[in-house]
């Protein structure tokens, strides 16, 4: 396998594990408010609290920066030109904008129906927004794009919104990153991200930094596997920082952001190890195709399932809370992958349309 093929394979098998990480990030927040008040989950078990923080606010937090880094790397791989920019902008209408509009409107429609029925209203409360049927035009713009509130109604699609903004800004990013000021520009972005000082509502500092870093690493002659030989030590620092941030989540040292810095090369190194196992490589490559569908469909479904689950079970012990924390997202991911495969067999072109992947793979299935 050539070096380019190996890097391509590593990116391919990375996608699904990163989506799993995104789901676990969203599983960290306490149960959502119900119309009748909050279902209380008060973790009194310090070990359970530590484990939950370690996974969702530690290991999983590497997912989003890596997604932006890979997106920037692939966007600028092979160079940039105005012709390529125009072609890629046109393609992003299908791969980013159309799925954003579809899933946002679908979420709004489901919530409008759920809020209208007395039997289900309790499970469709959404504090940041008024009832969907009472939305003004500004509310719909805010709900779809998260402007100016910061997060859209389909919360996870802030990633797609920021990615679209970065694609539009790609010419400026390319010329700055490839200039003599490239490293200075990246250092400035890093400082702003690390300090949490970033005035623009979007794209975020995290998105801007790691997309630009991907652009920088896409230059000819860059060896993105260079840190692999140091990764066992880097991973040790990564896990140590996560443990520190889990034990002291309010530490002014910002161990969680330090963990991301070391976590990105650590996770990238693990993809190289995964390639050594043909069975694991095959499984992750197959699951990679379902990544966007799981990303797009999981958040609101997860919110509703969690509300129903906690309302029925009312967990109080640390063991029960930890079990639900681990099993709920895993079961949801399995469910969504199953739905994806059913749609792939029955309506492949529609599936390609709503996931921004109307390519040969889906057309051959039709």
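^ Assign residues to that structure.
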């Amino acid at each position: 396998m050539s070096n380019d093929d190996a890097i391509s394979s590593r990116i391919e098998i990375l996608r699904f594990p990163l989506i799993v990480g995104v789901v676990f990030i969203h599983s960290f927040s306490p149960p959502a408010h119900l119309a009748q008040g909050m279902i209380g989950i008060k973790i009194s078990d310090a070990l359970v609290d530590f484990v939950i923080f370690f996974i969702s606010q530690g290991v999983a937090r590497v997912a989003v920066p890596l997604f932006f880094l890979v997106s920037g790397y692939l966007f600028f791989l092979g160079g940039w030109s105005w012709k390529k920019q125009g072609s890629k902008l046109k393609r992003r209408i299908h791969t980013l904008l159309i799925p954003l509009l579809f899933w946002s409107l679908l979420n709004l429609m489901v919530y409008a129906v759920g809020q209208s029925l007395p039997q289900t209203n309790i499970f469709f409360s959404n504090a940041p927004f008024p009832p969907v049927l009472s939305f003004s035009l500004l509310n719909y713009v805010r709900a779809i794009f998260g402007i100016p509130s910061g997060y859209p109604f389909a919360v996870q699609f802030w990633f797609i919104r920021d990615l679209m903004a970065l694609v539009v800004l790609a010419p400026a990013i390319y010329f700055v990153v490839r200039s003599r000021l490239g490293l200075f520009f990246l250092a400035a972005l890093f400082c702003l991200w690390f300090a949490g000082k970033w005035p623009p509502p979007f794209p975020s500092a995290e998105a801007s930094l790691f997309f630009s870093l991907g652009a920088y690493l896409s230059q000819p002659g860059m060896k993105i596997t260079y840190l692999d030989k140091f990764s066992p030590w880097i991973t040790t620092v990564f896990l140590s920082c996560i443990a520190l941030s889990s034990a002291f989540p309010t530490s002014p040292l910002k161990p969680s952001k330090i963990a991301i810095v070391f976590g990105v090369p650590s996770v990238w190194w693990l993809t190289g190890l995964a390639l050594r196992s043909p069975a694991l490589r095959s499984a992750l490559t197959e699951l990679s195709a379902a990544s966007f569908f799981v990303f797009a469909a999981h958040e609101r479904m997860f919110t509703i399932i969690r509300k129903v689950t906690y309302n029925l079970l009312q967990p109080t012990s640390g063991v029960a809370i930890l079990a639900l924390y681990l099993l709920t997202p895993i079961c949801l991911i399995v469910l969504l992958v199953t739905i994806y495969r059913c749609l792939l067999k029955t309506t492949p072109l529609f599936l390609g349309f709503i996931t921004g992947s109307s390519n040969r793979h889906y057309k051959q299935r039709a």
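The beta strands are 33-34, 37-38.
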